[in-house]
Amino acid sequence: MLQRLEPRVRYAETDDGVSIAFTSIGSGPPLVLLPTVPFGFFELEWEIPEYRAFFEALIGTVQLVQYDARGNGLSQRDANDFSVDALLRDLDAVVQRLHLDRFALFGLFNGSAVALAYAAQHPASVSHLVLWSAFARGQLGQADPQTQALLSLIERVWSLFTETAAAAWMGWLPEQAARRVARGFRASVRPEIARAMLDAATRIDLTPQLATISAPTLVLHRTAIPLDIAGPTEIVERMPNARLELLEGESANPYIGDWRHVVRTVLEFYIGSAGVETTDNVSPLTQGLTPREVQVLRSLAGGDSNQEIAANLGLSVHTVERHIANIYRKIGARGRADATAYALRHGIA
Are residues 310 and 178 in the same domain? Predict the structure, then answer.
């Protein structure tokens, strides 16, 4: 049975004395996933099946590095400086602690601005930039009326804010999944710190630095989400080596919806299509899966229900359920998300 991957929490100290929690897992070229300020808590994110599947699909092709920003998650909570310079200290502390010489940065939302600022200051270190729903000017990240209405709930009703944000930003998840994400939001940060970090983000303006950033940059954005495309468009227009790729979907979160396409797009950009094709050359049969179990796993990873798998393969639903139970046991999966991540890593999906 394969060992279930779990992030090991380590700590680094910034040059202004703040303790930053981080983890590094997997092998390959380093990919640093910046926290989704102000709701980053990587240890809890690994407990959300939708997030875990995304992370595990990256591991084996890249060394995935994650950390919690100051004021968030397991990092020091009593911080009071949330400027770009302060957040850059968090990232630099982790990079120095891991002795990373050259690496890619993956910045989501507010984290994209930190990624851009770091790439501008450290051009020799950043090999690639991947940005999700990005902006160089903080006001663009919070400009739309829906986001403004939602953010007004932070001080008024914190629990209502987190429940609504989890549903709206994640693409209206099923109720149970939305509650898991909302609990993660509440655990990651206190409401007054969340407001302070968001207010600091509105003062960001990196447009003067964009023309100086030479790292190949992929800007990803889903078309049917409330976040304005003006931010990603401005970045691509001002940066010499950036391109915008629009994806289908209603979730503002890359881990929800067609996340497999997001993973493949990111890896092909960073590693190249050949590297993704040959990721993890271990044959699935060496893990004890039969040819029929491989067929079932492929269908399961494609999103088919047990009834659909049965109909497509000419089996009874009971037989499919038995195959799935055997698959989970052999690969050490606890559910569909784990199994899908395994299938993607082994080239089955």
Answer: no
